[in-house]
Amino acid sequence: MIRMCAALLAVAGSMAQAQTLDFPSNANLQTEVVRDADSYVMPRGIWDRGEMPTQTVEGRVTQQVWRIAAASLTTLQLVRPLREQLRNDRYQIIFECQTEACGGFDFRFSVETLPPPDMRINIGDFRFLAAQRIGADGPEYLTLMASRTTSAGFVQITHVGPMAEAPEPIAQANEPPLRAFGAAPDATLADQLDDVGRAVLADLTFETGSARLADAEFASLQALAAYLAAFPSRTVALVGHTDSSGTLEANIALSKRRAASVLERLVSTYNVNRAQLAAEGMGYLAPIASNLQEAGREANRRVEVIVTSTED
């Protein structure tokens, strides 16, 4: 009886060791990198005042990037089902954060990630999660870095665990397809803000190389003004973006000036309450298309509006 119980416990331990994250069926494995007997510097806290708490973990390091083919996804949509799968598989979530709460630019570039085009990280919208558990053969560690473009979501998995002769697959794609919360490509600006929290002000035009907004009426600004008047307690950020021509510093400055021009137009012409508005600039750090083609560069030169309220 004792031997039988021991055997059952060993089987249970080996079953617990095997975890496979289930991605939606519209996800594709972009790349996988496996490093035997290596180490990984795992973030355990936010970037703050020039420092970020980390833990160096050792073992077989496996990194995968999955691309989920669906427009207007949110990073919460990407991470939430994976987080629940990890919890159900006895992982303890030790750290989780989103974008600015992580430490923004500094945090993102302090985390080991695989390069584009396989992994794409929107510097203005990402989530990070770190987890650990004690498996049958020792400790295991797993991190997720999730981000998105307008056309797809991206998730990088980094798993560090014991050396195994026949390791279980890290992830597969058998779940139902993942779609956006409901904003269709032709949805109104108000619907996009309510459903996915953001929208591109696609009809705006600026003088070339300038932050001066053209002297014209813009339907997107009229729609945004109506939205903010209908919800006077809501706040939004206007975020300017550029293509990759020129230096980062110059592009961040230009993109923020353009966002500020839009803010001033909303206040002066459309009577929007200034307290509902903020203006920021990302430069070329959050492209939605390739900068290798003119069409892509044109798409990247844009101003977006993002809902910043956390309550109705």
Please provide a written account of the structure.
With 312 residues, the protein is α+β, with helices and mostly antiparallel strands. Helices cover 28% and strands 31% of the residues. It has eight helices and twelve strands. The strands form three sheets. It has a six-stranded antiparallel beta sheet. Strands 9-12-10-11 form a four-stranded mixed beta sheet. Strand 10 (236-241), helix 7 and strand 11 (277-281) form a beta-alpha-beta unit. The radius of gyration is 22 Å and the shape is elongated. It starts with a helix and ends in a 5-residue tail after the last strand. 35% of the residues are buried. It holds the Pfam family OmpA. Its main location: membrane. This is OOP family OmpA-OmpF porin. Residues 1-18 form the signal peptide.
